[in-house]
Amino acid sequence: MQPIFQNTGLVGTGAMGRGIAQMAAQAGSQVWLFDVQPGAALAARDALHATWQTLVTKNKMTAEQMQACVDRLQLASALSDLAPCDLVVEAIVERLDVKQRLFAELEDIVGPEAVLATNTSSLSITAIAAPLKRPAQLAGFHFFNPVPLMRVVEVIAGLKTSAKVCQQLTEFTRRFGHTPVTAQDTPGFIVNHAGRGYGTEALRVVGERVADFATIDRILKDQMGFRLGPFELMDLTALDVSHPVMESIYHQYFEEPRYRPSVITAQRLAGGVVGKKVGEGFYAYDKGVAQVPAEPAVPVVAEMPPVWVSPKAARRAELYQLLKDLGAQIETAAAPSSAALILVAPLGLDVTTLAAVERLDATRTVGIDMMLDDASVKRRVLATNPATRPDMAQAAHALFARDGKAVSVIRDSGGFITQRVVATIVNIAADMCQQGICSPADLDVAVTLGLGYPMGPLAMGDRIGPTNMLEILFNLQTVYGDPRYRPSPWLRRRGALGLSLTHEEA
Ligand code: NAI
Predict the structure, then answer these.
(1) Closest CA to ligand 1's atom 4
(2) Residue 192 designated active-site
(3) CA proximity to 250, closest of 187, 205, 202
């Protein structure tokens, strides 16, 4: 099969450039390596030889395939050596002026049909292409680190990029076995935009002292199946990388409240407490291992009170069954007895609001998060309100831990923790669809592959139910009065009609 691009030039042969060179060679291109730093291209070639050798040792490549790849790699000693290239990808410093200058030089070297691609993760493709004579030939080609393992590539169209250029890059990506997704040129493209919700909302939760960061991490992993909690993730990425991205996207969207960064990370960054790589982040690290604070023990309760469940509780029938299975003494009268533990299960609202609106005795009222079905979660989350009596909180904790499932007790918060974080993620994704940044299918694929979420944000919203998602957001807005929770029109319409979040209008 003919390669999509016969000759691929790589400018900048650092971590990203090497990875992209590897992919291009494996897709059958002749690859030319160029770097301004003397010896860098040679070092990249040696590193690639070693990588292929390892792949052969692991039986992931034959010796013949390796030799073919090795034969395709060449060093360029000057930019003009890239003249035969029909694709040039840059992975140099992340500076607009430097990238613009490079492409202006390149377009006088390569042929008029050659594709110019930038691996920028934060600059505008349209701005990079603006000074060019042929802006239609330039597109974003955004890889993730490490390139061979992160199997998604964003192909980004600037305002003037030709459709053919995007098609070629898309097909090329398929040839080396990665999944291409197509995005319009907007801040953060797909993955870095869709990823805004997880950390920022978790930071708001911790900023309200709803729970400590270790508890928030446990809850999101055990309830929703995230591989890493938001604070573990920020420690791994390091705040010197992630905080500036939060600020940049927020400002690029002209202070859109949905992306508002947190003073917590700004301060930690200023103090150098940036994460695992310095041994100190949200967690302390001992020889690279996070020191996770122990969970509070399950209280021992001598006399368990009877339990009364609010008629407005989410998944009320399931909650009843769960209480039965746990051996609770359930009250079924219209109002709770004076001894009863009172349970509410809000969607989006806080326990305090429900106690007030339903005229319940707040001192005995505790909330449980029933957004997800109990069988699907590895942890139950209970919330107190400022008036809850300690004996009632303890009774609820002990009761819901009876079958050995983990239980976290948090302070009152609109929509608990998982509801808030998931609703924020889903709402941002829905708004990306509303803006037409990408297709719903590409959005879910990009986030699953690029961020490692257990499922795409739209699938997440569908699992919980678009109508429930909408209710949670409306209620969060009521509790917080904050425009960051206003539902995107995409979610609002699909939620109101009970349509899937992946549904596109005809
Ligand atoms: P790196 O620092 O490992 O490599 C950059 C290379 O470019 C160096 O070898 C440097 O000598 C060379 N270089 C700098 N200016 C040059 C110029 N004008 N002409 C030729 N070579 C030049 O950096 P890394 O991590 O490979 O990233 C490179 C680019 O990829 C950046 O633009 C970055 O935004 C983008 N990117 C990086 C990701 C990452 O996780 N590291 C992820 C996605 C995109």
Answers:
(1) 14
(2) yes
(3) 187
Ligand 1 and 14: CB distance under 6 A: yes
Domains and CATH numbers, the chain: 7-185 (3.40.50.720), 193-291 (1.10.1040.50), 307-410 (3.40.50.720)
Cα 119 to averaged position of ligand 1 atoms, centre (Å): 9
Ligand 1 centroid from CA 123, angstroms: 13
Q: Rg of the chain's alpha carbons, rounded to an integer?
A: 26
Listed in sequence order, the residues at least 6 apart from 6 whose beta carbon sits closer than 8 Å to its beta carbon are 29, 30, 84, 86
CA 478 to mean position of chain CA atoms? 26
Q: Are 471 and 460 in contact (CB under 8 A)?
A: no
- What's at 135, amino acid-wise? P
User: In this structure, which amino acid lies at residue 12?
Assistant: G
Model confidence over 426-435: pLDDT tens digits? 999 999 999 9
pLDDT-derived band at 1 (thresholds 50, 70, 90) equals confident
CA distance 418 to 367: 14
Contacts for 120 with CB less than 8 Å, ≥ 6 apart: 94, 99, 128, 140, 142
Which atom of ligand 1 has the smallest separation from the CA of 44? Answer: 9
Q: Which of 90, 107, 154, 201 is catalytic?
A: 154
Q: Which of 20, 23, 35, 75 to mutate to test the pocket of ligand 1 (most atoms within 8 A of CB)?
A: 35
Per DSSP, the three-state class of 131 is coil
φ, ψ at 367 (rounded to 5°): -105, 150
Q: Which residues of 265-288 are buried (b: 16+ CB within 10 A; e: fewer)?
A: beebbeeebbbbeeebbbbebeee
Q: What length is written for the chain?
A: 506
The verdict on the CB of residue 120 being under 6 Å from ligand 1 is yes
Tell me if residue 468 is catalytic: no
Kindly report, residue by residue over 330-358, the tens digit of the pLDDT: 999 999 999 999 999 999 999 999 999 99
pLDDT of residue 378: 98
What is d(CA 398, CA 327) in angstroms, rounded to the nearest whole number?
A: 12
366-386 burial: b if 16+ Cβ within 10 Å, else e: bbbbbbbebeebebbbbbbbe
pTM of the predicted model as reported, rounded to 2 decimal places:
0.96
| Ligand 1 centroid to residue 272 C-alpha, Å | 24
Average pLDDT of the residues of the chain: 97
Cα–Cα distance between 429 and 194 in angstroms, integer? 6
- Give the single-character DSSP code of 249: H
437 residue type, one letter: I
Q: Can 142 be counted among the known catalytic residues?
A: yes
